[in-house]
Amino acid sequence: xxxxxxxxxxxxxxxxxxxxxxxxxxxxxxxxxxxxxxxxxxxxxxxxxxxxxxxxxxxxxxxxxxxxxxxxxxxxxxxxxxxxxxxxxxxxxxxxxxxxxxxxxxxxxxxxxxxxxxxxxxxxxxxxxxxxxxxxxxxxxxxxxxxxxxxxxxxxxxxxxxxxxxxxxxxxxxxxxxxxxxxxxxxxxxxxxxxxxxxxxxxxxxxxxxxxxxxxxxxxxxxxxxxxxxxxxxxxxxxxxxxxxxxxxxxxxxxxxxxxxxxxxxxxxxxxxxxxxxxxxxxxxxxxxxxxxxxxxxxxxxxxxxxxxxxxxxxxxxxxxxxxxxxxxxxxxx
Length: 334
Hints:
The protein is an alpha/beta fold. It has 11 helices and 11 strands. Helix 2 (53-69) links the parallel strand 1 (42-46) and strand 2. Helix 1 (12-25) runs antiparallel to helix 11 (307-328), helix 2 packs across helix 9 (272-287) and helix 6 (173-185) crosses helix 11 (307-328).
C-alpha cells in the first residue's frame, strides 16, 4: 500500500490544530461539574485482547473510577482490525459520556496504514487525559558483544544487514520504534516483524533474532534472569522505573524518542462538563501512590494530563510517526 493512498495524512496536522483551537476555547475551569454524571454504568472500550499492559491499565483505572464515581466503569475488549473496530464503536456512540475509549499508541499510527477507516482519528474524538506512558527497552541476546546501545550501534555499522531486529509487527509501536532507530542511528539492520510481542521475545531469548524493543512488562523478568540484556530505554528521559539505564538518545542517537501510552477519549461532542469531570477523576487516579506502584510493576509512568495537553501530545505523536513511515517506506498488506 502506497502512502499516497493515505489522504488524511496531508491534513491531519491541521485537523489536530483545529481541535486544539476548539479545546483552547473551552472554559474548562469555569465549567460547572455535572453532579448527575454518571447516572448509570459507563462502558470503556479497548481495541486489544485481555491480558496486555494496556488492558491491565484500562482495568485498573476503570476500577478506581468505579470506586470514586459510584457507578460501574466496565471494560469492553473489542480486538481485531488493528483496533479500528473499537475506535469505530466509540466514534459512532452517543456523546453522552457513557461510552469511552481506553486508547493506546495505535490511535496515532493505525490511520497511517488504513486510510479508509470509517472514522476520523481527530474529528471524531474528544481527548480526556493521557494517563500513562511507558518506554520500550532495547534488549539483546546475551551472546551479542554489546553492553550499551552505543556498542550495539557500532556493531550494527560494522556488520551492515547482518543483525536481526525483532518487533511485534509492521505498523505496531515496536515495529515503528525499530524503523525510527534504523533511520536515526544510520544502521542497516534486518527488521523481522512477528505477529505479536510474545513470539518476538521468545526468539530473541533463543538467539533467533539479535535485538528488539520490548515492553518492560514482558522483558524485565528475563533481563533480571540474564536471558536478555537491556541496553537502553527508548523514552526521551530516563525511566523512573530503571533510572540507571541510559536512553537511546544519550547513547548516540540524539532526539530519539519512542514510547507506548495509554489515554482516555470520548466521542466528539461530549459535554465539556463531563470531559472535565472525567479528567479530574483520572488525574487523581494517576497520581495515587498505590496506582503508581502498580504501573511501575508494568514499566509504566503516571501522567494525568489535561485535555489540552493530551491534544498537543497527539499532534506531536502523529507527526513523529508520519515522518518515520514516509522515510522508511513501510507498508502493510491489505
